[in-house]
Amino acid sequence: MSRTTEPHTEAGQQADDRVRDEKKSGFALQLHAFWHAVAFLTRFPVPKRLQADAWPLSPPLYPLAGALLGGALALVAFLLEGHLPPLVLAMLLITCWVYMTGGLHLDGLMDTADGFGSQRPRERILEIMKDSRVGAMGVLAAVLLLGNKLMILAHLQGGELWLGILMAVIWGRSTMLIALYAFPYARAEGLAQTLNRRQPWIRLWPLLLAVPGLIWLQWTVIFPLLACLMLISASKRKIGGLTGDVYGALCEVVEVTVLLGFLVA
Q: Are residues 89 and 43 part of one domain?
């Protein structure tokens, strides 16, 4: 009896071991994808050696990376509120905000403003957006956005301040994720093309992190929705789709309009 069952038992054990190995490798791949998202969206330190094949899997984890970034900013606001004048605290928060992101999305906003504000043909707009130099429209867009963010933060207090920051950052990265998969990419090639691979819907679970913002914003959710609609419509009309710069612009616009929603609500 034992002779006949031993091979089956050994085969079953090997199968179980393979399943466990696959689960471990799958978890490791997702963990590396998360660190790719953190490395791309923030200046936070991450492990030096990351699996290259985990890079295309990183977009669904953008809201999770946003929660990490937003949590750090919210902690700064929580610890320093009451110890600094509101305007000084707001300026310090914006400085930390820009530093922790490396100005990545702000750069996208400026490039988008320069391109769309040029009123040129599609190919020329794409060239302007790719140019590393910043024009007058880009400077104006950055100054106006940061100025609005500064004044809104200065008038938020208590839970509205730190929760507003947390939700604004998560919503900004969630918007990038949705835009990446829901709308066509305008360029034939680019960094976003390496990320624009549809994922199983179950992997989009980090979007649930944005749900508390819906409860708090109530009717003011119309602010970020309208802002996204206007920018995406302009992008599709002018260049036939979205680019990495537009994703960054969406992130910045959503952040400031979510903060505005918290102030109004």
A: no
